[in-house]
Design goal:
single chain, Nucleotide Exchange Factor Grpe, Chain A, domain 2, alpha+beta, three-stranded antiparallel beta sheet, three-stranded mixed beta sheet
Length: 238
Amino acid sequence: MKSPMEIKITDGFASAMQQLSAEAEKTMPGNGGSGDGGGEQFAQILEEFRALNGRMTSFEQAVLGRLEKLENAEKSDFAEQLRKMDEHMVALRNTETVNQRLFDSLHDELIKYRDNFLHESLQKPFIRDLVILFDDLSGLLSQLQTAVEASEGKRSALGQWRDNLENAIHSLTEILHRMEVSEIEPKETVDRALHRVISFEPADYAEEDGRIVMRVKRGFLWRDQVLRPEEVVAKRFS
């Protein structure tokens, strides 16, 4: 397909040369006319016009050929530039993806380091002290409960102390929950990851092996990690 420039050059030049040739032939005297010298002169001029037309046609073809090569070269260069730009964008996206992965990995490592540092250096000792306080208050509550039951159900100061102590233990439990510490849920059988068996009782049947008989000391989790295993008494079949 010819370009607009090519069509313009071809049409304009062809029209001009055809017009000049037609005018030259009109002014050329006929064969029967007088003056052979004038006829030869016009024939020579016409021949020169035709030669000029041929040279201009050759020049036109050469120019159009160069324009076509230039246009193809520009298209090729443009396509090459687009290809290089596309490769650059792909490389840039890959680099950004790698950098994002490195950043995410580093961010996760920093979070783990922060959590471990806070847990091991700051929170863990404090949480352990709170857990020990929970054990002490729970033991005291058990003693008060026994004393209240021994008083034959009469309302006394011991009952009031027991109620106050229960409220204090509840408040302490809320503090532990706010620090992401939770109690290990009661289970029927021993889970070695959560329980520490401090004593065994004989089991009559094999199906009873590992069944928890009594919870001696409560266990706690911190962010789904065992802070302290629960101490239990379990059955063992032998």
